[in-house]
């Protein structure tokens, strides 16, 4: 079992809300191999600072790189033989409805038959396929250690819920519209095969792209929006890209491409998630303020919050309480697994509890009550 540990006291780290973003002209996106960076370094330099990077040669030893790819081409026959009867989610990049790509489901073998055609009349993109959840014993990839502190998928596994682990397969020119990731999470994406072009916008730049109704364009066009800070990154086969919280991004497949993606939250960005959730809730409450005196006002706000942000307040509280209780237990049971093959060192556990304690206090200040007994226990562990 790999241990995730940080070197310094949890009190010494800055968090996202304490780090000022530079101008994009000052960014140079760091590139390195997994062998060249330790978990603690990635934790400090990228997750805490909330800046993107590229990790090279991540997937070459993965099982999917050996079985899904044959002689530098997608191994269509293997994919049909192994997964052909599974139903997969597919987006049509040429059909737009309500400012998003139209979705459908189809058998994997039918999608592969489409993909291998030399001439295609449609532009279909297999997206958000929960293959690891469907085939949990199929070890077709390995989570890089630097991405191992993953509360979202830890919580999902502990509670038998839908995960945040996805496979994407798309032809050349298929694309993902401009968006930020669910819950204002981090994401990582590894190209098993092919090339992608990413356009990333540091937090706040997306506001300059909105129209008078507050809508974002499906895709950013530099000619239409000059003087917008952004980064262009070409992701090669085998590369992992780290996309920080709150960075809007769009993606174009420059070749037929297969990728594996995770969304994840941890102690480095849980405050970012809370702030985003709270801002969304305040906006909703303001929008339907005319219903404030009705008995259904609170429930209606939470329903809208869940539909827009993906999670409501009660579920968010349940999420952080679960992680808090588990971390308290892990302080006593040092070998207890967190997510995947990873266990946590003491400093990492204390850092997690420190950030949970911070968010719980914020919830209490806003009258979204967290049980004070749990807060008291965490405080004793942190400051004994």
UniProtKB/TrEMBL annotation:
<comment type="similarity">
    <text>Belongs to the JMJD6 family.</text>
</comment>
<dbReference type="GO" id="GO:0016706">
    <property type="term" value="F:2-oxoglutarate-dependent dioxygenase activity"/>
</dbReference>
<dbReference type="InterPro" id="IPR041667">
    <property type="entry name" value="Cupin_8"/>
</dbReference>
<dbReference type="InterPro" id="IPR003347">
    <property type="entry name" value="JmjC_dom"/>
</dbReference>
<dbReference type="Pfam" id="PF13621">
    <property type="entry name" value="Cupin_8"/>
</dbReference>
<dbReference type="GO" id="GO:0043565">
    <property type="term" value="F:sequence-specific DNA binding"/>
</dbReference>
<dbReference type="GO" id="GO:0005634">
    <property type="term" value="C:nucleus"/>
</dbReference>
<dbReference type="GO" id="GO:0005737">
    <property type="term" value="C:cytoplasm"/>
</dbReference>
<protein>
    <recommendedName>
        <fullName>Jumonji domain-containing protein 4</fullName>
    </recommendedName>
</protein>
<dbReference type="InterPro" id="IPR050910">
    <property type="entry name" value="JMJD6_ArgDemeth/LysHydrox"/>
</dbReference>
<feature type="domain" description="JmjC">
    <location>
        <begin position="132"/>
        <end position="281"/>
    </location>
</feature>
<dbReference type="GO" id="GO:0045905">
    <property type="term" value="P:positive regulation of translational termination"/>
</dbReference>
């Amino acid at each position: 079992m790999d241990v995730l540990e940080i070197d310094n006291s949890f009190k010494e780290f800055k968090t996202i809300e304490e780090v000022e973003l530079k101008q994009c002209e000052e960014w140079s996106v760091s590139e390195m191999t997994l062998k060249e960076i330790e978990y603690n370094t990635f934790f400090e330099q990228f997750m805490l600072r909330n800046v993107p990077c590229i990790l090279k040669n991540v997937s070459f030893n993965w099982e999917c790189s050996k079985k899904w790819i044959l002689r530098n081409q997608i191994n269509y026959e293997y994919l049909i033989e192994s997964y052909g009867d599974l139903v997969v989610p597919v987006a049509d990049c040429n059909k737009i409805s309500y400012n998003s790509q139209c979705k459908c489901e189809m058998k994997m073998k039918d999608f592969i038959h489409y993909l291998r055609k030399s001439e295609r009349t449609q532009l279909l993109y297999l997206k958000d396929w929960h293959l690891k959840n469907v085939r949990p014993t199929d070890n077709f990839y390995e989570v890089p250690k630097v991405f191992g502190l993953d509360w979202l998928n830890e919580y999902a596994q502990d509670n038998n819920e839908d995960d945040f682990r996805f496979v994407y397969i798309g032809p050349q020119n298929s694309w993902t519209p401009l968006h930020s990731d669910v819950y204002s999470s981090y994401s990582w994406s590894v190209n098993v095969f092919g090339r992608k072009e990413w356009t990333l916008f540091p937090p706040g730049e997306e506001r300059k792209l909105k129209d008078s109704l507050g809508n974002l364009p499906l895709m950013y066009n530099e000619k239409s929006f000059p003087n917008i800070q952004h980064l262009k990154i070409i992701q090669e086969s085998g590369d992992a890209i780290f996309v920080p919280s709150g960075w809007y991004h769009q993606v174009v497949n420059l070749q037929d491409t297969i990728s594996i993606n995770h969304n994840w939250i941890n102690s480095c960005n849980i405050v970012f998630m809370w702030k985003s959730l709270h801002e969304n809730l305040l906006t909703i409450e303001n929008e339907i303020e005319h219903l404030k005196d009705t008995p259904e006002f609170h429930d209606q706000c939470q329903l809208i919050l869940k539909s827009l942000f993906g999670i409501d307040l009660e579920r968010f509280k349940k999420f952080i309480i679960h992680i808090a209780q588990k971390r308290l237990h892990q302080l006593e049971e040092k070998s207890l697994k967190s997510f995947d093959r990873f266990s946590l060192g003491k400093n990492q556990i204390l850092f997690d509890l420190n950030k949970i304690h911070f968010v719980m206090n914020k919830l209490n200040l806003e009258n979204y009550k967290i049980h004070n007994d749990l807060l008291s226990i965490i405080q004793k562990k942190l400051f004994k």
